[in-house]
Write a structure and sequence with these properties.
By secondary structure, this protein is mainly α. It contains six helices and no strands. Helix 1 runs antiparallel to helix 4, helix 2 packs parallel to helix 4 and helix 2 runs parallel beside helix 6. It is globular, with a radius of gyration of 16 Å.
């Protein structure tokens, strides 16, 4: 019983953490979960869409995430806290959060991932704005990209190890 409870808590933590990632880059959580689904790295009874691991979905989400990483360095890039940016972060992180959780907990995990992404957008934006005058938009963006991509990969690797136990 305790082991099952620990597993549930770890899964909810993963949904929360993927929301933190989504607060910084909207497409990264969805791309990471899509890759994990294609590799069979998600829990067997996950609450995600069945199509999320389809090769075309994987290619599309990775392409969109890559474009977002590149577009973020442009001077014309909108702030992550504009309404459409927050909506995108909520939706993609909610889908990712649900995909990490068992089917019966998908709505809670989706809400957790989506809400966390929206809330996390603000401190991430403030930190980026504060460091840009000293280090520039490109350098701060590249550092943020590295942290975001590494974090998403680490979250999914740890969940994959948990699923194998």
């Amino acid at each position: 019983m305790l082991r099952l409870k620990q597993r549930r808590n770890a899964i909810m933590l993963a949904s929360f953490l993927i929301g933190l990632v989504g607060g910084q880059r909207a497409m990264t959580p969805l791309a990471a979960v899509s890759i994990a689904a294609a590799r069979g790295g998600l829990p067997a009874d996950n609450g995600g869409l069945r199509i999320i691991g389809h090769p075309l979905v994987v290619a599309g989400t990775v392409a969109l995430a890559t474009a977002e990483l590149g577009g973020d360095k442009m001077k014309s890039a909108p702030d992550r806290i504009v309404p459409i940016g927050l909506a995108a972060r909520f939706i993609t992180s909610a889908i990712a959060g649900a995909s990490l959780a068992p089917r019966r907990q998908r709505w809670i995990a989706a809400a957790l991932g989506g809400a966390t992404a929206v809330v996390a957008s603000y401190p991430g934006w403030r930190a980026r704005i504060a460091t840009m005058p000293r280090y520039g938009q490109t350098r701060t963006g590249l550092i943020e990209d590295a942290i975001v991509v590494a974090s998403a990969a680490a979250i999914l690797r740890s969940l994959e190890r948990l699923s194998r136990k």
